[in-house]
Amino acid sequence: MPIYNFKTIQPIPSAGDLVDIVLTRTQRRTPTVIHPGYKITRIRNFYMRKVKFTQQTISEKLSHIIDNFPRLNDIHPFYADLCNTLYDRDHYKLALGQINVAKNLCDAIARDMVRMIKYGDSAYRCKCLKRAALGRMCTVLKRQKSALAYLEEVRKHLGRLPALDPNTRTMLLCGLPNVGKSSFMNKITRANVDVQPYAFTTKSLFVGHTDYRYLRWQVIDTPGILDHPLEERNTIEMQAITALAHLTCSVLFFVDISEQCGYTIEQQVSLFKSIKPLFVNKQLLIVVNKIDQQPWDTLEIEKKQMIEELVEGNTSLMKMSNISEDGVSNVKATACDKLLAARVDSRVSGNKVDNIMNRLQVFTPAPRDEVVRDASIPESVRRAQVEGTYGASKDRKPVRSTAGYAPTKDNAGENADDDVAMDNANVRKTARDLMWENGGPGVWAPDYREQYDLENDEWKFDAIPQIMDGKNIADYVDPDIEKKLATLEAEEEQLIAEAEAAAMGRDEESDLDSDEEALVGVIREKVKIIRKHSKANSSTLPRQVRGRMTDCHDLGARNADGIREKMGEYGIDMEKMISRGRSIERKERGRKRERSLARNVSDDDASMDETQTDGMSKTQQKRSKKEKKDKVKREHSLARSHSRPRDPSQMGLKDEKAVKKVAKEERLGRKKWIGGSGEGDQRKTVHLVKWMNTGKKRMGTHNKR
Fold it and tell me: Is the separation of the CB atoms in 171 and 220 below 8 Å?
């Protein structure tokens, strides 16, 4: 499992996009409306909040960028040198340093501007300081355009790097181009590296995985290395050099003895000697490849000696061919075994093993005499093992009945002893087994007598006699049983009728004739039905529909005749209720008529006053106004000196002005009945953000400027 996952680095926006993100977030997350009439402390807090929020957003974004990228001093040296090879360590650190400096500059700008806004004496000055603060911070961000673009390219390339673990079991393939490294990797791993008949097909590190001895092994295919000084090697070659320098692995150096790669054996040997210092403390294998084209036995003696001179110390020489697959498995097994033995030796030679060995004590018992002491098994245990009842119930092998099934070799005994052992086995037969033993389905029925609950269990299977103590079952049957049953039912009906009569409040000795009793019976049935319906529909109605009719098509519920006819069926006189309803309806109708007349009179007076004063001169208007005032005074004095009847809707109102005011309030209150908007309705007007809709609009985007 790789310990570094560079694919989790988040994309880095450009300088312009970062400015848009910061300003848009400030606009959405902070208040947008302020008025000059507010207290100066409130205005200062409004603009200080915007500056602080912008600074916090910028600091958060830039800190996230800095923390996402790996620190070259904290990661594995392999990745540190690989980043130096691919991206230039100095340029990488410089870009991150510029981002850090920009964050500190934005913090300083915000701190200074907030200090100045604290002493702002007007809304205009606070706004100008806020605008200057946001402008300066955005300018700092725009200056980081090149650094942000460089870091975005580095992020993309880091995401394409192979996810390898520098500390796991690894095999590293190296050599000149076109010697068969990628073909060997495709043979032993599930990787699919491109193989072409020209040099430098592999331009970066490729990682594959293989299994050996139930362990996962990592195989790294490196680009080809040319034989020239280190300072002249390009970026592609330096990736292989970096892997050789920092990874603890088993190195496979490939040599093409057929020289079809375009390089002679002398050049390949020279390359091996030039990079030999990188093989220190590594398990080295020299793999002679393409023996299908040039067999090792027919190779020239001088060239064979040159290759054999490279084998010294712990180095091994192996032959193989990717085309015929001769020796591929041997090369893989040898490389894995050498690396596995080296890893074990390194751990054993460390200090941790001594600490563990000090805790262990190994004892080897020595015989005290020559007596043979076998295991002693009790006789009861031997008998239980033979019967199959030894051990816990969950550990025993279940023995199932095979009744009804064809015999097999497992349960068909070869002699009588097997059958006896089967019969003696303590196996409880199920009802299904008994069914198959006694003829199968439809022939055998279970005996339920074993389930009888008797005083003595020995009586369960006894035969039931037909005559006992001189009597039969028929002797216990009463011939008058039907007559007695009819008498009991009549008595029960009488008791029920008496209980109902008592519930209705009627004495038992009533003097009702048959017709009246029949009518009472009908009324009782109606009462039962009404109670039943009331229980079924006992849900509480909403207040606004309690007084409404349940059915507008039911004429009996709307007119007096229908009510009188329906309630007459129950013997209820409805004349008083109908007369009371008619009087209430007349009063309500009169009140509505008086209210409408008063409203029309007030509207006519207002319209007459407006039309009369339109064509008057100033003197006439003054005279008319004076007459109105005198009229109001006379009404006040009249109201105090005389007691005259007034309209109920005008009770408590002193003059016509109050009446008009009440009528106006009533009209406003009626708006909710006719669907008009009131003071409680929400109003959503078009709100234009000032900084988005003012100033000169240049070419390009200007919707979030």
Answer: yes
Q: How crowded is the C-beta side of 203, counted as CA atoms within 13 Å?
A: 6
140 falls in which pLDDT band (50, 70, 90)?
A: very high
CATH class held by domain 15-160? mainly alpha
Nearest to 111 by CA among 56, 62, 64: 56
Query: Could you read off the pLDDT of 302-343 as tens digits, one per residue?
Result: 888 888 888 888 888 988 988 888 888 999 999 999 999 888
DSSP one-letter code for 36: T
Judged on CB neighbours under 10 Å (0-12, 13-18, 19+), 267 is middle
Cβ contacts of 299 within 8 Å, gap of 6 or more: 257
Q: 350: phi > 0 → left, psi -120 to 50 → alpha, else beta; which?
A: beta
Residue of 241, 72, 253, 33 lying closest to 154 (CA atoms): 72
Residue 368, helix vs strand vs coil: coil
Average pLDDT of the residues in 114-130: 92
**What strand order describes the sheet that includes 215-221?**
206-212, 215-221, 170-174, 250-256, 283-289, 316-319
Q: Is 289 helix (H, G, I), strand (E, B) or coil?
A: strand
| pLDDT above 70 as % of the chain | 78
44-85, pLDDT tens digit by residue? Answer: 999 999 999 999 999 999 999 999 898 888 888 888 888 888
pTM: 0.48
Residue ranges of domains in the chain:
15-160, 170-349
Helix (H), strand (E) at residue 129 = helix 123-142
Distance CA 647, CA 590 (A): 12
Please choose, from the candidates 173, 315, 185, 147, the residue with its C-alpha nearest in 3D space to the C-alpha of residue 255. 173
- Specify the pLDDT at position 40: 92
The tokens for 335 are 């490389």
Answer yes or no: CATH 3.40.50.300 is held by domain 170-349. Answer: yes
Residue type, 339: L
Query: Token pair of 632, please?
Result: 């109001």
